[in-house]
Amino acid sequence: MQFTQIPHDLAKIKTLVVQGRSKAFSLNHKIIYMYLLGWQQAGQQAFPSLRTMADLFALSKRTVQNTLDDLIDAGLVRKENRAYDSNLYSCTPLERALRILNAPQERSNSVVLRMKDSLMSHIDRVIEILENMMNRETKEEPPEDDDYLTGMKDKITRYDKDGW
């Protein structure tokens, strides 16, 4: 009789990285990973069909496919395409999988990307002001440009100190 256990260290993990983005590490991910790993740890090959896993865990076939795609992209499962209705799956060993899942992730969420885009637009504005100043015959800068440059200097210093 085979059964699927989920180690506490794995159960505690909340996110995984899929295509460079953090995603919830759901119960579906944990169950399917451990189910496939269980076959491997028992010295057998894992080649269940999507339908078999869907029926076993009361999931739709599409949910199983999406979950497997996430696990494959995260580097936890490898898939070898085979003929007919099943593929051969192999899993990253649990200890290595835990290291992958616990590795610090670069913040790549939309807030950080918006901050970077905002900073880049400000840098473009600073460059524009400096180019205008160089092309002027008079050395007087309009006060709004001076205020803008001072404000941007403070923001850039803060971004540099705090990091992304």
What's a concise summary of this model?
The protein has 164 residues and is mainly alpha-helical.
What would you say this structure looks like, in words?
With 164 residues, this protein is mainly alpha-helical. The protein folds into 2 domains: 8-102, Arc Repressor Mutant, subunit A; 110-162. Helix content is 58%, strand content 10%. It has helices at 8-11, 27-41, 50-57, 61-73, 94-102, 110-135, 143-162; strands at residues 15-18, 21-24, 77-80, 88-91. The strands form 2 sheets. It has a two-stranded antiparallel ribbon with strand order 1-2. Helix 6 runs antiparallel to helix 7. The chain starts with 7 loop residues before the first helix and ends with a helix. The model has no long low-confidence stretch (mean pLDDT 80).
Per DSSP, the total helix count is 7
Measured distance between first and last alpha carbons? 50 Å
Low-confidence stretches are: none
How many E-type strands?
4
Helix residue percentage: 55-70%
Overall mean pLDDT score? Answer: 80
Q: Which percent band covers the strand fraction? A: 5-15%
Radius of gyration: 26 Å
Which CATH architecture of the largest domain? Answer: Orthogonal Bundle
Order of helices and strands: HEEHHHEEHHH
Structural class: mainly alpha
Please give the largest β-sheet: 2 strands, antiparallel
Level-1 CATH class name of the largest domain: Mainly Alpha
Strand and helix layout:
Elements: H1 8-11, E1 15-18, E2 21-24, H2 27-41, H3 50-57, H4 61-73, E3 77-80, E4 88-91, H5 94-102, H6 110-135, H7 143-162
Antiparallel strand pairs: 1-2, 3-4
